[in-house]
Structures are given as C-alpha cells and as structure tokens.
Amino acid sequence: MRIAERKASRRLEMVSCPTARTRLLTDLPEETIIEILLRLPARTLASLRSVCTSWRNLISAPDFTCNHLRRSCLIAPSLTTPRIAYCTGAYRNGLRCSRIGLLSVRSILDDPSEPTKNDCFTEQHYYGIIGSCNGLLCLADGDAFKYMHAILWNPCTGFTFESPEISGEVRFSGFGYDHLSDSYKIYAVTKKQGPSGFEFSTRIYTFGPTSTWRKIDDTPVALFGFPSDNSSRAVKKEGEFFGSSRLCTLNWCVNHVVIYFDLAKETYGHFPLPPRSEIGFPKWCTHLCVLRNCLSVCYLDGRTLEWIVWQMKEYGDAQSWTKLAVIPVPEKITYPGRYFQPLYISESDVLLVFCPSFGIVLCNLNDGSIDFSEIYGSGVRNKPVFSACVKYRITCIYHESLVSPNGLQSNSSKMLMHFIKSKPKPVDS
C-alpha cells in the first residue's frame, strides 16, 4: 500500500448512509477525497462535518476553507449560494425586539409569485447589520446611542464570535477583510459628550482571540458629513465593503464623493461620483453597493421618478462610471426613495432591489418587467417582514461559505445559537 493510501486509511472512517449501506473510503488517496469535497456546496460540506472527526477536522481546516472559498469565487460560483440576510424592528409583548431572517435568492428568482420560504425568528434584543464579507455577517448588538458589541456570524456553519464593548454613539461603521494580514476588521466612528461638547473618535477592532479596540488618528471628519457645529443632525451610515486582489476598502457616499478607508493600510482616500450633469437633480437616497464585483451607486431621480444604477468598472477611476440601468418606479411604490437598496444581479440580468414596503422587487434589465416577491415571516401571511427597521442597515447579500477567522472559536451569542438550533432545515438552496 502506498504512503498516501495508508495515510488516507488512518484519517478516513466508515460512512453510514440512510439506506444502511456502508462504504469504506480507505482505497481513495486523501488528495482525491479533498478534491471531491472541494466540488461540493458550502452548505453540504457544513453537514458533512458531522460524518466523523477526521472529516470535521479536514473541512474545518483553514487551508481547506480558503481553497473552497477561492474555488467558489473564481471557478464555480454555484458552490456558494447567495442569500439575503435582514434585520428589522418588531414589538413583542410591548417590548422592542429585532427580527432576523435569511432568504434564498434562488427561490425568489425561480418563482416570484410564490411566497418565499423565510427562516426567521424574533428575539428580545436590539440587533442590526453592519455588513458582510466572505460568508460572514457582522451584526451590531446593543443600544446604538450608548454602546455596541460587534458579533461575527457565519450562518452556514454556526460560527459566532463577539467583540468587546465599545462605548458611545456609533455614527459610521463598516466591516470587511484585510487581504494583507488575512484578518477581518470592524471600523467605527463614535460620538461622546465631552467636557467642551461632542467628541468624535475612530476605532478599529481586528477579530482575534485577544484583540481590543484601538484608536486611529487622521480621520477626515468633515468629509463624513458632520456639521461644523458638531450637532446631531448627521446620519449614521454603514460602509460598503469592496474587495479585490489589489485592495480591500470600506466606502461611504458623502457630499457627492465616495470616501474610502483602506483596511490594509488604514488610510483614507476619495473619488467623485458620476458627474452632476449626468445625474440631474433633485435626487434622493444615494446608496453604494457591489454588483457583479463592481462598486455601484444607486439613487432616485426625483424629476423623472426613475431609479438610476451606475457601475464603476475600474475601482477608483472616476472615468469608468458606466450607467447600468434606468428603472421606472412602479406606481404602487408611494415612497420610492426611502431605503431603496439594490442587492444582487442574477446571471439572467434580473436585479433584486430591496424596498421596505414591498420586500424584494425584481427588475428585469432585459425587458424592463418588474415583479414583486411575496415574503412572509414566522408563518404570518400578508404581513411584510420589512415593515419596520432598526437604526442599522436592514438587509445585505451574502454568499454561503465555511470561513471563520484563523484562531477563533465561537465565544458568545446565545441569540444566534438559538437561531441555529431552532430554525427548520431549509428545503431550498
């Protein structure tokens, strides 16, 4: 027996299937087993971790999860199913709660006329979405006006990790991946009452077993839209993460420019939005998002009542802004600019747009048709799950993965563990 085969014999165990048939995999080299597993979707692999200890160790290994993520991004996108996470406000027994749910993009696209299965639950806690990256969701736990914990959650694997508390009102925040240090970071600008008025500070937390919040300097506060008198009129915003092999940044749209923070260098920069003459005024609710790996900006043109979507083909190059779509606002949407948020473009050129009053709106970029997907939560029909929102971002798109930051073990979040244990097994993918 060859060395590779003997090694596989030691590491792989017998697998039992529901039909009571068993199969010994000792004849397959470990390299072959790894190659087979790398071709399976993330959700399937998460289930296979329970087959045996050796498979759990193999599938959970950083090298394997990194290779699976790279393969799913570059070679086989079907391995990482896109899903929508949302977090909205709710009241239960007169108390303010949060409703967290997950939706399958595929089920929405397959048949918009059928109610989409919605795995969700309500918890007596205040949660909000800061952002997503590589299958990880970053949630805010706490009173947005006094303090915040950041919770890292992988819904596919059940991994959760909670950061230390940061005090103060969080005005700007963001979550993303630093490709140079192979780490995940959260960014927060906080406001506190000081001896001579309001004081702003910027802090970074790198998810790690012994990490703490650290302060950084040279924050361009004026560029973030804070009034000169330090009043409370500024609105908190979550940065949009953009990642490539060249750089990873958090991006905010302020005063007709995009302000970005480089997560690796921890420096700032900016570039303009599409020319004003191209946009036209009045306009409302400019939103940044990432569509087909391009930073995109979306807004409502108040003169024509059209949604306009632009893409930046080359990140940072203002000359590469390209108009992607002009979408007439459906008549049934009475407040078309409020929380308008594009989420995802399918392979068949269907743009998913989030509107709180109607849930997910499907805009076909080829023929201009528009569908409204019915989404119900907790078994309640005819009641939109997006009817109320919390202070943070309401929805985000994420792609299922096996990722968890190196060296971290789940350390907290009873709420999320309750969700993992109690939610029904999805029937869609």
Task: Describe the protein in words.
- Strands 6, 7, 8, 9 and 10 form a five-stranded antiparallel sheet that branches. This protein has a five-stranded mixed sheet with strand order 14-13-12-11-15, with no helix packed on it. Strands 5-4-3-30 form a four-stranded antiparallel sheet.
- Helices cover 15% and strands 42% of the residues.
- The chain contains eight helices and 30 strands.
- The chain is mainly β and 429 residues long.
- It has helices at residues 3-11, 30-37, 42-48, 53-60, 62-74, 105-110, 276-279, 414-422, and strands at residues 15-16, 22-23, 82-92, 95-104, 118-123, 127-133, 136-141, 147-153, 160-162, 166-167, 169-178, 183-194, 197-206, 214-216, 237-238, 240-243, 248-254, 257-262, 267-272, 283-291, 294-301, 306-312, 321-328, 341-345, 350-355, 359-364, 370-373, 376-377, 380-384, 395-399.
- Residues 1-24, 227-236, 377-384 and 417-429 have low confidence and may be disordered.
Write a compact overview of the structure shown.
This protein is mainly beta and 429 residues long. The protein is built from 8 helices and 30 strands. Strands 6, 7, 8, 9 and 10 form a 5-stranded antiparallel β-sheet that branches.
**Low-pLDDT ranges:** 1-24, 227-236, 377-384, 417-429
Radius of gyration: 23 Å
Helix/strand/pairing class, anyone?
mainly beta
**How many separate helices?**
8
Number of strands: 30
Percent of residues in helices comes to: 10-25%
Task: Determine the N-to-C terminus distance.
Answer: 40 Å
Q: In what range is the share of β-strand residues?
A: 35-45%
Outline the biggest β-sheet.
5 strands, antiparallel
Taken from the alpha-carbon principal axes, the silhouette is globular
Summarize model confidence as the mean pLDDT.
Answer: 76
